[in-house]
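RECORD TYPE: inverse folding
INPUT: C-alpha cells
STRUCTURE:
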C-alpha cells in the first residue's frame, strides 16, 4: 500500500495546478483514470484566458478568475508557454443587446477587471474587418494559451518536486479511517491524510464514493456539451470576438476560438446531454444554429461550415437554473476533515487554475 500526504484525484488542468502548488510542502500522488493528463474538459475548450467580467461580484468564479488571469500570464512568460494577450471584444449585434454590453461593462468594473472601455462598431470593424456590430466592450486582459503546453509544464514541475502520477487508476471507493483516508482504485490502494477531489466531469461520483449524496448536497453535475465548427472563409483573426452571453446563463455564446498561430474555429454552442453520457461524437445537426448565430456578427460565407471539435462542461447549473458558483470546500462539517471537493469547475477553470491551487492550499487544515 502506498502512502502520501495528499492524494489528488484528477489530472486535468486544475488537479495539475493544485499538485504544482501543494507539492512544495506535502508528498503528493495524483490519481488519474486516463493514460495521460487533460483528456476531457481541460483539452476540449476554447483555451481562453478570461478576465473576470462575466461573474457576479464576490463569487469564487469572479475572484479566482481575476487572480488566475494574472498568475497565468506570468506563468506563461516565465515558462515559455505559447500564449497571446490578444484581448477581446464582447459585442452587441442589435439594439436589444446594447443594454447587456453596458451591464457587463459595469459588472467588470465592479469586479476590478482593469482597463475596460466601450468601443463603437466602427472601431471594432477596423480591428476585425469581418465583424459587424453596434457596440462592444473591449477587454484587454483576455487572451489565449496553449493548454497542452501549460498542463505538460505543470506535470513536469510537480514531478521534479517529487509528486507521483498514477495514471490508468480509477477511484472506486474512499474510506475515512480516523484522521486518514484509504483511496481504493482498480489498480491498488493508497493511504493519505488529505484527499483533493478534482475529478472534473466525474467529481460528483468521486464525492459519492466517499459517502456524500450529490443530489442532497447540491453537488450533482449536468453534462453540457458544446461543439465547434470551422469554415474556410475565415482563416485568420487577431482578436477574440464574443457575443453577449446567452440569457439563460448556459454559455458565453458562439464565438471565435483562436489558436496561438492565428487560426480560427467557432463555438461552442451548449446543450445538455441525457443521463450524463460521455459523448464526443460530431455531427452536422447544429449547422443552422451556427449559421444563424455567426451571421449576426460575421461578414463571411458560411456555406462550408463543418463540425470540427467538441467538449463537455461539468455544470452544476441544471437546465432552467441560473448561475452556480464553483464548489471548493473542505468537508470538515460533514465529518470528513481534509476531504476537499472541487465540483462544477467549468469555465473559467483554465484561467483560474493557478489561483485555485493557491486557494485550496489555504483551506487544508
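DESIGNED SEQUENCE:
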Amino acid at each position: 500500500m502506498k502512502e502520501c500526504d495528499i492524494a489528488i484525484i484528477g489530472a486535468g488542468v486544475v488537479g495539475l495546478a493544485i499538485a504544482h502548488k501543494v507539492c512544495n510542502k506535502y508528498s503528493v500522488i495524483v490519481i488519474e483514470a486516463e493514460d495521460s493528463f487533460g483528456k476531457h474538459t481541460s483539452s476540449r475548450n476554447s483555451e481562453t484566458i478570461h478576465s473576470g467580467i462575466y461573474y457576479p461580484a464576490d463569487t469564487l468564479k469572479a475572484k479566482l478568475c481575476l487572480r488566475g488571469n494574472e498568475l497565468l500570464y506570468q506563468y506563461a512568460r516565465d515558462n515559455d508557454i505559447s500564449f497571446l494577450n490578444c484581448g477581446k471584444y464582447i459585442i452587441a449585434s442589435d439594439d436589444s443587446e446594447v443594454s447587456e454590453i453596458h451591464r457587463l461593462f459595469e459588472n467588470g468594473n465592479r469586479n476590478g477587471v482593469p482597463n475596460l472601455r466601450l468601443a463603437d462598431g466602427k472601431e471594432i470593424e477596423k480591428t476585425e474587418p469581418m465583424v459587424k456590430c453596434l457596440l462592444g466592450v473591449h477587454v484587454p486582459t483576455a487572451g489565449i494559451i496553449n493548454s497542452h503546453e501549460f498542463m505538460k509544464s505543470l506535470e513536469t514541475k510537480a514531478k521534479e518536486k517529487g509528486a507521483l502520477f498514477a495514471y490508468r487508476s480509477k477511484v472506486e471507493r474512499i474510506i475515512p479511517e480516523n484522521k486518514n483516508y484509504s483511496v481504493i482504485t482498480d489498480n491498488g490502494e493508497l493511504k493519505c491524510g488529505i484527499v483533493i477531489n478534482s475529478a472534473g466531469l466525474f467529481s460528483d461520483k468521486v464525492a459519492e464514493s466517499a459517502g456524500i449524496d450529490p443530489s442532497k448536497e447540491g453537488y450533482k453535475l449536468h453534462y453540457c456539451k458544446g461543439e465547434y465548427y470551422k469554415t474556410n472563409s475565415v482563416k485568420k483573426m487577431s482578436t477574440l470576438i464574443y457575443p453577449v452571453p446567452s440569457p439563460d446563463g448556459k454559455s458565453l455564446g458562439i464565438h471565435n476560438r483562436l489558436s496561438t498561430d492565428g487560426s480560427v474555429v467557432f463555438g461552442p454552442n451548449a446543450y445538455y446531454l441525457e443521463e450524463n453520457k460521455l459523448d464526443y461524437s460530431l455531427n452536422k445537426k447544429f449547422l443552422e444554429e451556427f449559421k444563424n448565430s455567426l451571421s449576426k456578427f460575421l461578414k463571411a460565407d458560411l456555406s462550408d461550415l463543418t463540425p470540427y471539435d467538441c467538449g463537455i462542461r461539468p455544470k452544476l447549473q441544471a437546465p432552467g437554473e441560473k448561475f452556480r458558483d464553483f464548489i471548493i470546500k473542505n468537508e470538515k462539517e460533514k465529518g470528513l476533515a481534509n476531504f476537499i471537493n472541487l465540483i462544477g469547475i467549468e469555465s473559467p477553470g483554465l484561467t483560474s487554475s493557478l489561483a485555485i491551487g493557491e486557494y485550496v492550499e489555504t483551506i487544508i487544515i
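NOTES: The chain has a mean pLDDT of 97.
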